[in-house]
Amino acid sequence: MAKTLTVGYVPTRRSNFSVFEALRYKKRIAEQLNRIPVRIVDIEDINEEGLLLTQEDVPKVIEKMKRNQVDALFFPHCNFGCEGAVGQVAKALSVPVLLYGPRDDAPDETGMRSRDSQCGLFASGKVMRRHNVTFSYIINVAPEDERFLRGFERFTRVAAVVKAMRNIRVLQIGPRPGDFLSVMANESELMEKFGIQVFPITLTELEMEMERIRREEPEALLEVSRFIETRYKGAGAERKEPRETLAAMKLAVGHFAEAFRCSCACIQCWSAMQESMEIYPCAVNSMLADEGFPVACETDICGAVSAMLIQAASGTSHFLADLTVRHPEKENVELLWHCGAFPSVFARDRENCRITEAWDGNPQCGNCAWELKKGDITVCRFDGDHGEYSLFLGEGKGVDGPYCRGTYVWFEVQDWPAWEYRLVQGPYIHHVAGTYGKAADILYEACRYIPGLRADPMEPGEEELLFRLRS
Description:
With about 475 residues, the protein is an alpha/beta fold. It folds into two domains: about 160 residues, Rossmann fold (3-Layer(aba) Sandwich), CATH 3.40.50.10940; about 300 residues, L-fucose Isomerase, Chain A, domain 3 (Alpha-Beta Barrel), CATH 3.20.14. It is built from 16 helices and 18 strands. The chain has a six-stranded antiparallel barrel with strand order 10-11-16-15-14-17. The protein has a five-stranded parallel β-sheet with strand order 2-1-3-4-5, sandwiched between helices. A four-stranded parallel β-sheet has the order 7-6-8-9.
């Protein structure tokens, strides 16, 4: 996350427990937070203790957190805590909230308890519900316990997904292909429900911007063209004309994204583009995916949203895949494939990534060709119809399988027929966003913070995801 996420650190205590112990645990917790790459905003300047304690503190904490535009709030209960003040701060900020209290020490030799952190968490949890505040929770363990660090890091990724969802602006390049009713999206509904905005341009506007770049930005064009020539192999990288067309398109998409402040895009990748520009944009999509800017194929707006969410959850790049065919011999293995939009960062052999002619025999260039690496893979699909939206979630792993043209990986799960049944029943289609690692629990938890979006976990199921969240 490279410190792009800002977390408000608001430790709290109650007055009738040990001040010394509360301050000691505040410091121990803060030391652990330094291991996670996020920006921390504390409350050291709010009062002498740097702890949320009284009603007098509440407006000052709220003002500081708003001024610093925090993306999430963390309330460690250094003893019982002040649940009333915690609830008011959380309600005022409307960002993801994390509750935690370090495991309590044994009573001293006189029988006195110094903190009662766990007891206070029960109270704060109820107050959150009174305020209709959604919150996450780390189980009652010591700050140095790996479960604490794992829980905090997981929460920051959840908050990153929520932040991404609140700031999605999709650059739509061209209308959807005529027969692709499956990728239709309700723009007004996406904006009303989730604040997702779509900014359309035509393929003609894209082509005009590419021509302007050729005339007015020759040095920038040459730089991208040289990058393609040195980074990739194949006809699309070796031949000057397609290489320069791809370079101009990459710059043009970047210019439009910057002009409209878009965080992702979708593009009508065929067939009008091949008729007017004699190129496929797959290599451009791939290069932009390597840079963390999703571009969905076939004008799939919901595919672009899916990519944004899974990228935020994993903290790495994404790939947008067709669910294509089942393995000819293995019951639970499916082909994740596309014409070439997969990022090269995930390639099994990064030294031999190729930009080629079209996978279906068309001599025009721009498709890519490489197999993705093996390993754990998470996929998701944001989609909806009839006013209801859900996020399909699933995990599997990349495995060996037959060679295939284009960019691809064979994906193994426990029960593919169950996946297939769920996906066909909908509201999903053949496009999913994928990334490496296990991120289904992050996305599942993030859905709790996104009104109108239901988590739809396939594998692992809900019970296992909840176990993971408290482990």
